[in-house]
Write a structure and sequence with these properties.
Layout lengths: L2 H17 L2 H10 L4 H28 L2 H21 L3 H11 L1
Helix pairs in contact: 2-3, 3-4, 3-5, 4-5
Length: 101
């Protein structure tokens, strides 16, 4: 396979592996002392963020370009996930979960 295809494959793998963390967010939050309702709210904010992200991503792809939009999305998603791992406040966790979508 050509080298660019391997980069695309690796980027897609890392991106999908990162989204695999989402189902465990509920377990993580409940073990940290949050109620199941609060953990469910965090998952809900991800869903709402996904709706907005699809629209914004489409607009950015048209204006900036597909490659730049995908690269920015992957980098931003990784940064937000790292930030969320350090967040201790529920409001901040909700904001970061919403913006990761």
């Amino acid at each position: 396979m050509p080298r660019p295809a391997w980069f695309l494959f690796a980027g897609s793998f890392v991106n999908r592996f990162g989204s695999f963390v989402l189902p465990f967010l509920v377990l993580y939050l409940t073990r940290r002392g949050y109620t199941p309702a609060q953990a469910g709210l965090a998952i809900s904010t991800y869903s709402v963020g996904s709706l907005g992200a699809a629209a914004v991503g489409g607009q950015l792809a048209d204006r900036v370009g597909r490659r730049q939009t995908i690269a920015a999305s992957m980098l931003t998603s990784a940064a937000v996930m790292l930030a969320r791992s350090q967040a201790t406040n529920l409001a901040l966790i909700l904001i970061l979960t919403h913006s990761q979508a």
